[in-house]
Structures are given as C-alpha cells and as structure tokens.
Write a structure and sequence with these properties.
149 residues; ten-stranded antiparallel sheet; 10 strands; Lipocalin; mainly beta
Length: 149
C-alpha cells in the first residue's frame, strides 16, 4: 500500500547545545509480512549519490531494522535494552558502530502508524551521540486505506 512517510531525526552530540535535526517527507510503501511491518522508500539524495532505498522493518517483538541499499549500504538494528554491532558504509569506507536501544515505541496498523526510537551510537566503543528517530506514515490524503488490501 502506498503511504506518505514523515521522518524526524534528532542527533544530540556531546558539547553541542542544539541537536542536529533532519526532516524528510517522502512517498513509500507499507507491507505486512509474517507479523512484521515493512516500510520501503527511496531517499531524496543528490544526483551524485544515486538511488538509495531504505527499508524499515518492525517485528512483533518491537525490534527495528533499518536497511539501506544502493551506493552506500548499511543495516542498523535497534532493540530496547540491547547493543547491536552494525556495519555502516560512509561512501569512503565501512565503520563498525554500536547501537544501544534505550526506547522503542510503536503504534502500527495496516494503513498508518508511528515509530519512536531512542538509541545511543558509538564507534569503536566510544560514545558519539544520543539519537531520536520518529517515523510516521499514513495513506496519501484522499486515498482509501482499504484499497491497498
């Protein structure tokens, strides 16, 4: 089913008084498969970056996987109370980063929803930032949510 996806990312970096904030609004798709909600969308990138597709999967135990494919690939896993080691391709090389899930809240249905993640990020076990990611999705205005079934 086609959805409008709104993403707000806030990164709180030590020594900085204001968070780094990124807001994205884009079209994508929502699929329910084996009890997991799967959002897919193309990231608005510069022409030099080529197409990058992001897939966000939330399973029934509230574990969130964020996978990017295209020129730069990565898979980030966020799970409350656990630290996951993840590969992150910067375009100049890969980094092994740690993500510790502090909070995950989700309210999901077959046509709309909201995901909130709060996690810390470390590189080589050295703390880098506290991050909040909010993802909202809903059918395009005027669309019939039942049409995608």
């Amino acid at each position: 089913m086609e959805v409008i996806i709104k993403i707000e990312s806030n990164n709180f970096i030590p020594g900085s008084s204001d968070p780094e904030t990124i807001n994205i609004v884009t079209r994508g798709s929502l699929e329910l498969r084996d009890g997991a909600y799967i959002l897919n969308y193309k990231e608005p990138m510069s022409e030099d970056d080529g197409d990058v597709t992001t897939t966000i999967t939330v399973d029934s135990s509230n574990v969130v996987d964020v996978m990017r494919s295209g020129k730069n690939t990565s898979r980030l896993t966020v799970e409350k109370g656990r630290r996951h080691l993840c590969n992150y391709d910067t375009g100049y090389g890969c980094l092994m980063i740690g993500l510790y899930g502090e909070q995950i809240k989700s309210r999901l249905s077959e046509n709309s929803g909201e995901i909130l993640m709060r996690y810390t990020l470390d590189v080589n076990s050295e703390y880098q930032s506290l991050n909040e990611l909010k993802v909202n999705f809903e059918p395009p205005h005027g669309a019939d949510p039942a049409a995608g079934r």
